[in-house]
Amino acid sequence: MKRLPVKRDEPPARPITFRAAEDLGPFELAQLWCDRTAWPIDERTQYDELSELAVMSALGKWLRRWQPIAIHSAMLAGARPEAVAGALGNSLQVAFDRWHEWALGQRDLIVGGKPGITAEEYDAVARRFVALGVKS
What we know:
- The protein is an all-alpha fold.
- It has helices at about 20, 25-35, 45-75, 80-90, 90-110, 120-130; strands spanning about 110, 115.
- The protein has two domains: about 1-65, no CATH class; about 80-135, no CATH class.
- Helix content is about 60%, strand content about 5%.
- α2 packs across α3, α3 (about 45-75) packs across α5 (about 90-110) and α5 runs antiparallel to α6 (about 120-130).
- Mean pLDDT is about 90; it is low at about 5.
């Protein structure tokens, strides 16, 4: 992303609030976050700091929202629950809790006559956690 020339006392053309950053969407946020030329290193202003905070906060919310989907997919692909917890960087219980909250909603969500996840998918993942003594 090319930085626009800005007077140092004016806000940059980057979001400086969480709401504005969240409106960019997850992929644009990720692209902006990884573009180190978008973030000045020297002579940072309050707008630089606020923008970086807004972008990282909004991106973090998106990524956290997608974690249960990744947990579900990894488990169905055959990953061990311990490996899933290791990839998550947390305990088996936290991995289960994040997946379970999402999975209950998806199992009960019916769109076009089809559930977000099938009862069989739900049961397959839940059984693998329960086999290790992890449950709600």
